[in-house]
Amino acid sequence: MKLAPKGVVLLFRFTLMTLKRCGSGVAQMNAGVVLSLFNQRYFRDKLSIICEFIPQMIFLNALFGYLCVLIIAKWISGSYADLYHIMIYMFLQPGNVDCSSTTDGVTTVGCPRNKMYAGQAGFQVSRHTVGNLPLLDSGLCSLLHKM
User: Fold this and answer.
1) Is the pLDDT reported for residue 137 higher than 70?
2) First-last CA distance in the chain
3) For the residues of the chain, what is the DSSP string, one character each?
4) Nearest CA to 120 among 89, 84, 145, 80?
5) Is the pTM here over 0.85, yes or no?
6) What confidence score (pLDDT) does residue 18 get?
7) Is the dihedral of CA 47, 49, 50, 53 positive or negative?
8) Which of 7, 22, 44, 51 registers the highest number of CB atoms within 10 A of its CB?
9) What is the pLDDT of residue 37?
10) How far, CA to CA in Å, does 98 sit from each of 42, 71, 82, 101, 146?
């Protein structure tokens, strides 16, 4: 019987533990937001449902749900992508998957291994856009609360 190399086993275990922790954290946050929905429905506060519950669910699942999907994709594909950099560059430079930069006409390639699938740049831009929609909604809702 041939055993897997030690590095592969460690990578598998680390990714599995990360998935369990991240998944349980996202599930717990979703449960807290859903409990707030019950509270808002009990007090018949429709404005809070529209201005708090819906934006919180969109933001939470668009960003942290995507992180859980990335962890599963990394686990299945055996990719060496750095999820930390993927999530950071999704906000700093939307659409720049491989962390490349151009300064004074010189292009520097940062970490090309972070490209995990075709269309990742466009999908991350959409996640970034959808994840930030609640920020616009919260500004409008703060005006409605003052009325």
Assistant:
1) no
2) 72
3) -PPPPHHHHHHHHHHHHHHHHHHHHHHHHHHHHHHHHHHHHHTT-HHHIIIIIHHHHHHHHHHHHHHHHHHHHHHHHT----HHHHHHHHHHSTT--S--EEETTEEE---GGG--STTHHHHHHHHHHHHHHHHHHHHHHHHHHH-
4) 89
5) no
6) 83
7) positive
8) 51
9) 96
10) 48, 17, 10, 9, 44
Which positions ≥6 away from 85 have C-beta within 8 Å? 99, 110, 111, 114
Q: What angle do CA 15, 20, 22 make, to 5 degrees?
A: 90
Which of 22, 24, 51, 25 has the alpha carbon at shortest distance from 36? 51
- Whole-number Å distance between alpha carbons of 34 and 28: 10
Find out whether 74 and 86 touch, Cβ atoms under 8 Å: no
- Is residue 135 pLDDT above 60, yes or no? yes
Residue found under tokens 């151009």: 102
pLDDT digits (tens, 9 = 90+) for 53-101: 998 898 888 888 888 888 888 888 878 888 888 888 888 888 877 777 6
CA distance 86 to 96: 9
